[in-house]
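Milestone 3.1: sequence recovery, worked example.
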């Protein structure tokens, strides 16, 4: 593996780990948000689901953007 590929892998792993930590942290904040916003369990679950769907849609749009614009263009 050449140095550029190694660097790309390291950057991708850094992004993936940050995203994983953010998703984990969101799960820890849900009970506090539920109490502070005076929401029902169903409303809180819907909010959490919407957050997960947002991540999914962002990943799908990014995949299409990389296909159309290339990795550099999508990053910019």
């Amino acid at each position: 593996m050449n140095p550029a590929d190694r660097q790309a892998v390291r950057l991708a792993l850094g992004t993936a780990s940050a995203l994983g930590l953010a998703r984990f942290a969101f799960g820890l904040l849900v009970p506090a948000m539920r109490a502070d916003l005076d929401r029902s369990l169903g409303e809180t679950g819907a909010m959490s689901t919407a957050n997960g769907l947002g991540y999914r849609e962002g990943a799908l749009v990014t995949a299409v953007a990389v296909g159309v614009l290339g990795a550099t263009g999508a990053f910019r």
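The mean pLDDT is 85. The longest helix spans residues 3-37.
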